[in-house]
Amino acid sequence: MFKSSPCSEVEAANARCREVASAEWRRVVPILEVAAGIGEVDHTTVKDLCVCVARIDQAERDLSERGLMVTAERGTVKNGAATIAGQYRTQLARYIRELGLSPSARTAITAPEMEDEGSGIWD
Question: Which of 46, 65, 81, 119 sits a CA distance of 20 to 30 A from 92?
């Protein structure tokens, strides 16, 4: 996802993304293991959530450094990082709902009912 690069500027951005994504992983996985019962099969979804958080951070840093409007070949235009941040936020909202990471999403999660001891998986 955030591979090493010979370009020092890209490498610095990717290193920060790795740090932000790792911090998000450490923050949410313990909560999700207890609250939602996620397991290894869910790790791809959680990993994507962490990438979204890191990319939003990256886009927001660009917006802070260069501003909402930037000078390009055609004059002053909207910084593309604003569009990218919006797209990642839309995806992040989906992951938050899917994983029950918001108060409203948590109320929608119900614990599975206990099965009778006598009934099998195929009954």
Answer: 65
**C-alpha closest to that of 58 among 116, 123, 1, 119:** 1
The answer to whether residue 117 scores a pLDDT higher than 90 is no
Instruction: With CA atoms as reference, report the closest residue to 100 among 37, 50, 7.
Output: 37
* Whole-number Å distance between alpha carbons of 104 and 77: 37
Alpha carbon of residue 78 to chain centroid: 24
pLDDT in tens, 4-37: 888 888 899 999 999 999 999 999 999 888 877 8
Amino acid identity, residue 121?
I
How far is residue 90's CA from residue 102's CA, in Å, rounded to a whole number?
14
**Beta strand pairing status for 75-78 and 69-72?**
antiparallel
